[in-house]
Amino acid sequence: MIKFRLIYLVLALTCLIQSCNDSDNDINEDITISISDFTINIDENPNAGLYLGIVEATTSQGSIHFSITQQTPSQAIEINPISGEINVLTESLFDYETNPTITGIVKASNSGVSESANITINLNDINEVVDDYNLLAASNLGEVFEIGNNTGIIEKIGQIKRENDNSILSTNNLISSEDKIYCIEYVYNPSPTNNLLVFDRHNGTSQIIPLTIPSSINGDERGIIALTWYNNNLIGVLAENVLISNLPKHLIHIDLDDNSITELGITFKEDKITSMIKIDSKLYISTWGEGFLDIDLANKSVNNVSYINGSRLAKINDSELGMMEAISGYMNGARPAMMNLPNLTVTDNSSEEVYGLVTVFGNSIYENQIYLNLVSNNDLYLGIMKTNFETNTSSIVEINSTSVDRNLIILDTTD
Fold first, then answer.
1. How many helices and strands (H and E) does the chain possess?
2. Is 9 left (phi over 0), alpha (psi -120 to 50) or beta?
3. Cβ contacts of residue 413 below 8 Å, gap of 6+?
4. Is the domain defined by 134-413 classed in CATH 2.120.10.30?
5. Cα-atom radius of gyration of the chain, to the nearest Å?
6. Rounded CA gap, 177 and 380, in Å?
7. For the Cadherin domain, which residue ranges apply (predicted)?
8. For the purposes of burial, counting CB atoms within 10 Å of the CB of 303, is it exposed (0-12), middle (13-18) or buried (19 or more)?
9. What's the longest Cα–Cα distance across the chain?
10. Which residues are registered as beta bridge partners of 40?
11. Most buried among 29, 201, 276, 342, by the most CB within 10 A?
12. Residues 6+ positions from 153 with CB-CB distance below 8 Å
């Protein structure tokens, strides 16, 4: 009797299982899914996470689960498994030159039933801004930067070592060769000392070289307040007292082989020196409101051209300089101009625009027929001003940072 009951129980369970399977099959047979191909055109170089759209899919009952089963290139996009939203996953893959079209296959599933559709993302080729060279810049904190000349991308690439980390460097004293950046640190240790700071552009190392001021130059607070190149060495302006106005300023020669200083026997009293450049036997010094100094190093004469004031001298050729001419009525307001050296005249090349100089001190450069400066105004934290003296036009490339210290000047190019 027990045997027959067991056989009956097994048969009953078998029928129940079969009935459940038949029921499931009936349910699956009732589920249908409809899904459409997804196609979109977008500009190349989107941001990661950018919403691209939703895969359109419906089901007769229940809900759909979305998944990407294939994509080329891999990891380009992602999909929300519930909503079907497609987003950019890896922004670097959305480059027209590399992947003009991104493709994939999306699967919509529901209770074992699934349908697939194609994903096609066509990229639009856009005119990308690229840098044909980088600018070398340095700040009064000794920071060294590269700045893309067309993109405005700024990157700190080094730090000029100072004896005192709190020292503020005059941008008048920042100059560069192909290999090194030179500047002067004025520090007390305990008496006033002028350190020559040398930064190697190739390996980022620094030297701190204390300079010995000639005893023939009087003064309690003697400080070098400007530098420029002088036959592969340096020429400097030495103030007898950096704290007191209208005292003599002495031209000195700094030999970079032994770091010795020689007095050149030329003095003047102008205080607001903004930039300095040497061409042949002439030294040209700009000031902010105290005229333009035309100094003959051979006959040791100083000529002050009172009607020329400004900053950011840059050599165009042996007879012309670019400069930012000071504009009265504006705080550090200036505009680009060209100076004719033989007759000491200035031609306004600004189309009447006035730009702000965060620091009026320091030189600039002339590169590829363009005069370059770092400027600022109420709407611009910091930007590269490019002046074409042939067309008398200027354009601005905005620096892509609002946190970098703006007291910096352009020294050179890096490539």
1. 1, 34
2. alpha
3. 133, 134, 135, 136, 149, 365, 367
4. yes
5. 35
6. 30
7. 34-145
8. exposed
9. 136
10. 121
11. 276
12. 131, 147, 400
Task: Return the amino acid letter for 61.
Answer: Q
Q: For the chain, give every residue range classified as CATH 2.60.40.60.
A: 33-124
Tokens of 235: 């020429």
Return the structure tokens found at 33: 């899914």
Nearest by Cα to 101 from 137, 71, 59: 71
Q: Which two tokens stand for residue 32?
A: 């249908």
Q: Tell me which long-range contacts 212-217 makes (C-beta under 8 A, separation of at least 24).
A: 212/260, 212/261, 213/238, 213/261, 214/252, 214/261, 214/262, 214/263, 216/263, 217/250, 217/252, 217/263
Tell me which residue has tokens 């033989």.
Answer: 342
Residue 349 to residue 322: CA distance in whole angstroms = 10
Please state, as a whole number, how many other Cβ atoms lie within 10 Å of the Cβ of residue 51.
10
Structure tokens at 28: 């699956």
31 close to 111: Cβ distance less than 8 angstroms: yes
Task: Supply the DSSP string of 145-187, one letter for each residue.
Answer: EEEETTT--EEEEEE---SSTTPPPPGGG-EE-SSEEEEEEEE
For the 33-124 domain, the top CATH level (class) is mainly beta
Q: Which amino acid is at 284?
A: Y
**Would the CA dihedral through 160, 164, 168, 172 be positive or negative?**
negative
According to DSSP, the residues that pair with 267 across neighbouring strands are 250
φ/ψ of residue 65, rounded to 5? -110, 125
All CATH 2.120.10.30 domain ranges of the chain, comma separated, are 134-413
User: β-pairing, 101-110 with 301-305?
Assistant: unpaired
CB 367 within 8 A of CB 410: no
